[in-house]
Design goal:
By secondary structure, the chain is mainly alpha-helical. Helices cover about 50% and strands about 5% of the residues.
């Protein structure tokens, strides 16, 4: 058996409906096996805090090996994993098809699922992962001002920390009273022009974050599609993609959300639409996690085949000779961060490729974890760790004195902006960089006006 792995990573289906999946003794045995392999390798020590936590437990144990770590402490490693998948896709030499069959993220997910099933997950964490419910409540016109005011009020943030365990210093996204789906203009009925690699019509799955927190980015996407004369529609209905529930180990809720989303998305896929989701975590959910949870579901497979990251689609259109490049407005210096959930989609750096089509752009690309990781990075027990993980990113993003900082993950962008503000202006620039989503930057470069609640870039 050769050392390491020269083959591309492959993934086994997630056998989450098998009772053995929730067998604590079997999971502990597998944790011990995998932790021992990680201990002998240690390539992933710089990725997140799960691996330093593991290696400290081993090094400080009685034997200096995994057998010196109490099994009750295995959970300390599990708690530090936010399922970014980067170790699996970019670092680990022992993933399948290697005989050692190491899948660290899905092993952590299995342990999280046991914790959830045994009632060990806080009520506050269940609430934070219920993005649709929070968005619908906070988006009520009277409530939205109270909700947004509370995130800026020190006393209210202290109460929020006590009730929901959200760190009082963590930056939080604002809510909008006008839900994107309810206020977005319908697409123009242009004739669909299929390319060699791209369908000529698009269906938009807006996502919870675009619907409730950042509708302007959704409008930027529709403006770009309209400018390129690509007809688009919106998914008939949508619920949360399920990623927040997956990260919590609540797999039954993931299945319920799948039953809402997949049937109508599968219909759109079979009608020849490319399905675009403006949030990388949501795209990954449909491309990878749901197909691994439901490997025999033909509707899930149909959606997987039709699902695109927006810039994956736009770059493919450009290669098909069907994307306009009539950019009029310069972007200057842009520091662009590639989110982990986009890196692990294995499609290459499509956002970078698209932005490089803009004449004169000076692009600084950062490929490293920001540390935010969905709800994980705002929790009181993890916020400072999240800032520590992101510190190299904050420095690299600010080093060139950029005009804009940008990330496909809006939450990562917000986290990076806060990190730069926290460490001060290390680049010595006269003014702070403006934060803008890559779709907003593309819309600006085209010279297109922002629609109502258009993507902010102030």
């Amino acid at each position: 058996m050769r050392e390491g792995n020269l083959d591309a990573p492959t993934r086994h289906p997630l056998d989450w409906q098998n009772p053995d999946f929730y067998d604590t003794a079997k999971v502990e045995h597998e944790l011990e096996r995998v932790f021992d392999i990680c201990h002998g390798c240690r390539r992933c020590v710089s990725l997140c805090n799960a691996f330093p936590t593991l290696f400290d437990l081993i090094d400080e144990g009685k034997t200096g090996e995994v057998d010196g770590v109490a099994k009750k402490d295995f959970g300390k490693v599990v708690d530090q994993c936010y399922l970014c998948d980067v170790c699996y896709m970019t670092k680990c030499p022992y993933v399948p098809p290697h005989a050692w069959n190491v899948d660290f993220p899905h092993l952590m997910l299995r342990a999280k699922a046991i914790n959830f099933k045994e009632g060990k997950v806080r009520r506050a964490d269940r609430i934070l992962s219920s993005t649709d419910a929070l968005g619908k409540l906070a988006g009520i016109p009277v409530v939205v001002e109270l909700a947004n005011g509370a995130t800026r009020n020190g006393a209210a943030r202290k109460l929020m920390q006590q009730a929901l365990h959200v760190h009082q210093d963590a930056a939080l996204p604002a809510y909008h009273a006008g839900k994107f789906r309810d206020t977005a203009q319908p697409g123009v009925a242009y004739p669909a022009r299929d390319g060699a690699t791209t369908p000529g019509k698009v269906a938009i799955f807006a996502t919870c974050f675009i619907n409730y927190n950042d509708p302007g980015v959704g409008r930027d996407l529709t403006a770009i599609l309209d400018h390129n004369e690509i007809p688009f529609v919106f998914a008939e209905k949508e619920a949360c993609c399920g990623m927040p529930k997956l990260e919590l180990g609540d797999l039954e809720s993931v299945a319920k959300l799948k039953d809402i989303n997949i049937p109508q998305l599968a219909r759109l896929a079979r009608e020849g639409y490319a399905i675009l989701t403006p949030i990388p975590s949501c795209t990954l959910m449909f491309k990878q996690e749901l197909p691994l949870m439901f490997p025999d579901d033909p509707d899930v497979k149909a959606v997987q085949a039709a699902m695109f990251d927006p810039f994956e689609y736009l770059v493919a259109r450009q290669k098909d000779g069907l994307l306009k490049t009539d950019f009029t407005d310069p972007l200057g210096k842009v520091s662009y961060h590639i989110p982990c959930h986009l890196r692990v989609q294995n499609v290459g750096q499509k956002t970078r490729e698209a932005l490089q089509l803009v004449p004169g752009i000076e692009l600084n690309t950062i490929e490293r974890c920001s540390g935010h990781a969905g709800t994980w990075g705002v929790k009181e027990e993890y916020f400072e760790t999240a800032m520590k993980i992101g510190k190299p990113v904050f420095k690299q993003m600010n080093a060139t004195g950029p005009d804009y900082i940008s990330s496909d993950c809006s939450l990562a962008g917000m986290h990076i902006e806060q990190g730069i503000q926290r460490m001060g202006d290390g680049a010595g620039t006269a003014r702070p960089a403006r934060k803008a989503h890559p779709l907003t930057l593309f819309r600006i470069a085209y010279g297109l006006p922002a629609g109502p609640a258009g993507g902010k870039h102030e």
